[in-house]
Automatic annotation (TrEMBL):
It comes from the Bacteria. Residues 61-92 are annotated as: Disordered. The keyword Transmembrane applies. The chain crosses the membrane at residues 35-53. Keywords: Membrane, Transmembrane, Transmembrane helix. This is Uncharacterized protein. Residues 80-92 have a biased composition (Pro residues).
Amino acid sequence: MDDRLIALEAHFNAILPTLATKADVEALRAEIHKWMLGTIVGMFIGFAGLMLAMQNMARQPAVAQPPAPGPAQQTRQLEAPPPSIIVNLPPK
């Protein structure tokens, strides 16, 4: 019986120093709260950016109108180049 008690004491002496104390648990809790707060703030910033991007994509693009020509300005019409013709011939 004495041998079993000595074995249990040795086992407890090996395990007890590795267990978390109340101070360890409180420190862990404080650190988890910091990480949770940072994650929540980051998510709000991310969702706000996503909403802003979605609004910008959904908005109709503004059509830029050319400036009205004044009396001294001459308007110049650009001509489109002639269409190119492509002919595919089978090999002989």
